[in-house]
Amino acid sequence: MLTTKLPPFIISSDLTEEEKDQKYEELVAQWVNKVNDTLKTLIAKIANENGVPAQEAGQIRVFGRLTAPKKFNAEMDLAHRRIDYLIPAELLYGIDQQSIGVDLQTFLKSMKEFYPTHKRTDAVNAMNMDRQEGDEQDFKYIYKLKKLMQKFCTPIVEVDEDDEASVLAKAFHQQKRAKYGKGSKNITKKLEEDGDQLQKIVDDKKEKNEKKGEKERVLKRKRYHNFTRTMMAHEFLSYRRVDRFFHRATVKFDGDSESSRPFVLLSAKGDLFLDGQVRAMIALFVAIVRGYVPADIVECVFDEEYPNLVPCPFVPTTGFHASEMNYSTWEGRMNAVLTPRFNETWKKGWKSVSIREAIHEFEYEVQKTISKAWNTNGEEVPLSRDLPAVEEWVETYLKPWSKRANEQYNDYCLWKKAREEVMDSENPDASVWEILTPPLSSISNEVPHLYAKVLELLRKADESGQWPSTTAKRQLVMVSTTNNENEESTTSKSLCVQQLKAQAGTFEKTCAYSFKEGQGGASGSFSVGAMPGQCDQPKANTLFPELMKAAFELEIALCPNREPSSTIAINRNAQFRPHIDSGAGAGQSRSLIVALGNYTGGELMVEGAKNDIRYKPLEFNGWTERHWVRPFKGERYSLVWFTPKGCDGVHGIDLCI
Ligand SMILES: O=C(O)CCC(=O)C(=O)O
Ligand SMILES: [Fe+2]
């Protein structure tokens, strides 16, 4: 909350309307100045307290005020937003140029300046002018980048009646319009009469369109879970809309001179972006343009069927600055321009030339500050070289990431090829992995001495029929197979369909998979040891005391220097989807994991890196690093030793009898 002292907004009723307006303007101007002063001091103070250098502290500026109705919610009522990043243009110096012998300096010099303006046509004109000047190569290049950027967006496609997901998406959209949109009253009435049937709306609309000879079109959302660290594929929110991803401007801050370094402004438009999403889109784009990963990796990143996570890299936060908010619905209701621009329809709001100019000036000022921030040591760097901050990010972050991403991409190609081969089989999903996973005969059944006792006790626990059921929360992140082959699965296989059904309120779930307790095929997961605070202590402590003791002893034998853990997760034939472990870790917060049994495949993936953990223990941070298990053949047990927050200093071995 920002508070600042100001005289009250009192306007005498004796004034004429014109004088009242003038007085109001004066008061607003005073208010604006005062708020901006307070913001400046406050940001400087916060930056100082956090050790952030002044030029990197960020800026917020207020340009005016408008009274909104109480119901207005700036976050919830947003129609769409634009996010901007300013990056040094050399990040787009790609293999294409290198292959035709253009060096970095020539590339940077050839980049023509164009600015974004409030009138979009200006920007378009600027680009058109460039084209007329006729640098064929340059134009081709920009066009190619544009095509690539489009692949990151959500397309509008014709509704495919055989595709349940797009039919539902259309129905959902129409239902929403029926509630809030144009001509909504009639449709809402109809809905009330007919009941809330999604399919009905689709059918009616389809009939109408067929008469008109038109095809239905629908926005095809995609999953952006690979572009964030905080959302997994199975969570509804990972389905997002990205309307545009584009090159908005090329700017040179030292004038358009020979030695002036160009910066490129990249923008993304959508309704709601996931944490880090745009930074990841830009970083992946850069990695492709620079030729570190193939362009087809975009297909892999968005492939709904591919069960692996493909973590995307992130660009440094340096370039992130302004974004534009669009409240189209509220502009009508408030009779005001809420997104600064030229407009003749609405009476009030951010439409005056002076406000628009002030905003553009501020935008330019901010971008200039950012261009300086990219040049970390402030020294003049010749155009034949990358800025040091760029070089560092590329060498220490982007290239190592690309190495792993290429491995994942190759894996994707193998998977895709195998899938094509088994397309017509009864259960293509399972058959793909049947092909990709080595046969059981390829491994030795020998059990290393250290593990023999634990494995024997695990098998005994399995045979006892008392293997505890998995908690619902854990089941969400496990690939499920139903025990009973004849049992009809109640959930659709497609995450997208699940997502849409839930969104439309057909059933209430926060996640695309649902399980009954004890479902999940032959797989299962439970814990032994200590649980923090009020949680019930694991039943398995008393159910399998011998196994518990042997398992805690195994940790000490495997890692004598590791502080003994308080708790162990014990998994049987569990193929985990990408997840992070729930809760938080205590102390060193690294979990120890190892797998046992006669199986092939089943590697543990950690942030895209493949780890064979069969009788090979591995330490990793399960609370921050996303991890999952690749499909496997055979019998696979895994033990995860960890100490959750609240169990600090507790050693599970001390709880054993
Ligand atoms: O079985 C594995 O390899 C992974 C286990 C895991 O991630 C977990 O128990 O949370
Ligand atoms: Fe885990």
Tell me the layout of helices and strands.
Blueprint: H1 17-49, E1 80-88, H2 95-99, H3 104-110, H4 120-133, H5 136-150, E2 156-158, H6 164-180, H7 184-194, H8 198-212, E3 217-219, E4 222-223, E5 239-240, E6 242-252, E7 262-270, H9 277-289, H10 297-302, E8 320-326, H11 328-334, E9 336-337, E10 348-349, H12 353-374, H13 388-422, H14 428-436, H15 452-463, H16 472-475, H17 495-503, E11 524-529, H18 540-543, H19 545-558, E12 567-572, E13 591-596, E14 599-601, E15 604-606, E16 609-611, E17 618-620, E18 627-629, E19 632-634, E20 637-642
Parallel strand pairs: 9-10
Antiparallel strand pairs: 1-7, 1-8, 2-3, 4-5, 6-7, 11-12, 12-20, 13-17, 13-20, 14-19, 15-16, 15-18
Helix pairs in contact: 6-7, 6-8, 6-17, 13-14, 15-19
The structure holds 2-oxoglutaric acid (AKG) and fe (ii) ion (FE2).
Domain Fe2OG dioxygenase: 553-644
Organism: Chaetoceros tenuissimus
InterPro entries: Oxoglu/Fe-dep_dioxygenase_dom, PsdUridine_synth_cat_dom_sf, PsdUridine_synth_TruA, PsdUridine_synth_TruA_C
